[in-house]
């Protein structure tokens, strides 16, 4: 039995244009034509279309599907295994995004609502990159400090955010001044600024021992998205992230020296 292109489109839940495209691409050419030249599809064509739609649903490109259908027994398993790995990775990424969204909802539920004007007033140029937030959540998800930090951040009021961002802005101005003045990263002035930053984290988010502070600083040096949470791009200088990282490490080493606590 033969079916018109319109009938096949209705059966398969696709458009006539899609079937025409598959024909032009050589992926699904109808096995017959009517006397007037219209496409006619047989049962074998419908079976092939079913395969095409199955692979499309899994996210394969038309070129990949064409390769699979050349020799389904030889190529399908390899392609399916690769796609399974990709889908598993995507599921993991979406789960992490869902966790970030859940925490964003928690923040919203605290009742701290900011208009765009208030947000700029409080946060200025500091922007929160969702992709970095997702990766950071995954990296630190087993950390009690991360859980405490998220809980305390969610509990901050608008005035809390205004105060802590004001402190951060003043500290940032001091850091930029020291950098521009050519102060050494392991000098007392800059190490004191590193210590202020550590105490700022402890005051507003979570206990931050020197070893944790070193790991945070390593992120600043390695990932521009992390450093942008401390110094917005418009205020950054080449080498500033590494400079702060070195200062944090020097301060951590200084605090490990018992002579410093006497």
From TrEMBL:
Pfam name, any one: MerR_1
SUPFAM superfamilies given in the database record: Antibiotic binding domain of TipA-like multidrug resistance regulators, Putative DNA-binding domain
Organism lineage string: Bacteria, Bacillati, Actinomycetota, Actinomycetes, Kitasatosporales
Gene3D superfamilies, alphabetized: 1.10.1660.10, Antibiotic binding domain of TipA-like multidrug resistance regulators (1.10.490.50)
Coiled coil: 77-104
UniProt KW Chloroplast keyword: no
GO molecular function: DNA binding; DNA-binding transcription factor activity
Keywords: Activator, Coiled coil, DNA-binding, Transcription, Transcription regulation
Domain HTH merR-type: start-end pairs: 1-71
Stated name of the protein: MerR family transcriptional regulator
């Amino acid at each position: 039995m033969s079916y018109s292109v319109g009938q096949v489109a209705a059966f398969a839940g696709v458009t006539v244009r899609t079937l025409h495209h598959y024909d032009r691409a050589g992926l699904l050419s109808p096995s017959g034509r009517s006397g007037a030249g219209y496409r006619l599809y047989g049962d074998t064509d419908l079976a092939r279309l079913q395969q095409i739609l199955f692979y499309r649903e899994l996210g394969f490109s038309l070129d990949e599907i064409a390769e699979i259908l050349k020799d389904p027994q030889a190529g399908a398993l390899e392609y399916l295994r690769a796609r399974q790995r990709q889908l598993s990775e995507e599921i993991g990424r979406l789960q992490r995004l869902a966790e970030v969204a859940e925490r964003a909802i928690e923040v919203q539920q605290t009742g701290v609502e900011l208009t765009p004007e208030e947000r700029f007033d409080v946060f200025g140029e500091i922007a929160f990159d969702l992709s970095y937030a997702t990766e950071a959540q995954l990296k630190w998800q087993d950390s009690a400090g991360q859980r405490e930090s998220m809980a305390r951040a969610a509990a901050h009021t608008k005035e809390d955010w205004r105060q802590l961002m004001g402190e951060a802005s003043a500290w940032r101005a001091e850091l930029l001044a020291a950098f521009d003045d050519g102060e050494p990263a392991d000098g007392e002035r800059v190490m004191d600024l590193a210590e202020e930053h550590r105490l700022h984290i402890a005051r507003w988010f979570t206990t931050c021992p020197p070893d944790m502070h070193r790991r945070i600083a390593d992120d600043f040096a390695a990932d521009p998205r992390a450093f942008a949470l401390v110094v917005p791009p418009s205020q950054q200088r080449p080498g500033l992230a590494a400079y702060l990282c070195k200062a944090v490490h020097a301060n951590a080493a200084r605090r490990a020296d018992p002579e410093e606590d006497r």
